[in-house]
Amino acid sequence: MIRLADDLELLRGFPPYAFNVYLMGGVVVDAGTRFAMRRILRQLRGRRVEAHALTHAHPDHQGASHAICETLGVPLWCGEADADAAETEGLVMSRMPPHWLTRAVGPHWTGPSHPVARRLREGDVVGGFTVLETPGHTAGHVSFWRESDRVLLLGDVVANLNIYLGIPTLREPERIFSLDPAANRRSARRMAALEPRLIAFGHGPPLRDPGRFADFTGRLPD
């Protein structure tokens, strides 16, 4: 694992930074695709894990969720508006915008559904971080914020990776994956206003440049 801050580690993956999974104060955040099960469980061996939380219920974030929860005996937590998708077979794909690419790839990445023990809302505390509701990419997308050292786990509100070229760069989520791009931009600008010193993304390497992040979100259309 790569230590990013106190009580925040990034699990290693291949390709690096493609599908990020974090250990945040004893909570596993996100789960990659269903093919990530072995590499996640291997790195968590011997570590204290109390729960598993999702930033959102998309195939590349919930794929190994059932395996993590069953193997480690921990509950699944998810944003309230995404919880039904996480725990109901077939809803993950139906909540995504229709597109040939998602139809072709998504079913192969999606993992089994799993009951959601806790539906996360604004202001809840998870692993020492505060839950922020950041809808747009999905209806129930959440991010995690720790004000004491200004660390933000952003999920897919913004990516720091060109998913086609594998090059680190700040980007909006691809339109074919986002339900409401305008709402997602509002969430991104809200997160930039926090002036985070460290931003951990769902896709791409971490960023320690709040000015660059603010400049990017400031250029987004309304």
UniProtKB/TrEMBL annotation:
Q: What superkingdom heads the lineage?
A: Bacteria
Q: Which InterPro entries match?
A: Metallo-B-lactamas, NDM-1-like, RibonucZ/Hydroxyglut_hydro
Query: Which N-terminal residues, if any, form the signal peptide?
Result: none
| Species in which this protein is naturally found | Paludisphaera mucosa
The name under which this protein is listed is MBL fold metallo-hydrolase
Domain Metallo-beta-lactamase, residue spans: 18-203
Q: What is the lineage of its organism?
A: Bacteria, Pseudomonadati, Planctomycetota, Planctomycetia, Isosphaerales
